[in-house]
Amino acid sequence: MNKQISIVVIATRSIPLADGLEALLKAIPQIEKVEIVRTMEHVVQRIEDIKPRILLLDLALAGKKPEALLEQIISLSPETMRVLLVDDVQDIKWLPQLAEAVLIKGVSPSAVAAILTNLLFVKGDGNEKFNRKNEIQKDIR
Fold it and tell me: What is this structure's pTM?
C-alpha cells in the first residue's frame, strides 16, 4: 500500500452530491481528509497547494472545456488520481488520457466506495495507470 497521505478533494457546486460523497469518503479508513471546493479556480488552487491523492471532479463544474482544466490539474499534480463525475456516459470520450475513472452520478454508494478503495491500493508496478483504467472501466459497465 502506498503510504502517501490520502487526501481527497471533491469539486462540485452540488451541495447534496458533495455532502453524500463526503459522508461516504469519511467512512473509508484509508482516507484521512476530505475537502470540498465549489469553483474551478479553487480546484486548481487546492490541487497545487495540497496535491491530493484523489480528485473527484464534477464535470458540471469544469465548464465548456473540461479537457483544459484536467490537463492543468495533471501538470500541477501528476500523481493526483482524477475521478470524473458525469451525468451521462456520453461525457467520457476522452477518459483514457485524462482520468483514472468515471462515475455516473447516482451510481450506488457501494460501487463508489469499491472504486475509490481500489484506487487507494494501487501499487506502483509501472502499469498502474493502464491496469487501473481497465479494472475501473469493467466495474462501471
Answer: 0.81
* DSSP letter, residue 29: T
| Region of 2 on the Ramachandran plot (φ > 0 left; ψ -120 to 50 alpha; else beta) | beta
Chain segment 117-135, per-residue pLDDT in tens: 888 887 443 444 444 444 4
Q: What's the Cα-to-Cα distance from 33 to each of 66, 72, 80, 86, rounded to whole Å?
A: 25, 23, 14, 23
Q: In sequence order, which ranges of 86-127 are alpha helices (DSSP H)?
A: 95-98, 109-120
Task: List the beta strands (DSSP E) in the chain.
Answer: 7-11, 33-37, 54-58, 81-86, 101-104
Residues 3-22: tens digit of each pLDDT: 556 899 999 999 999 999 99
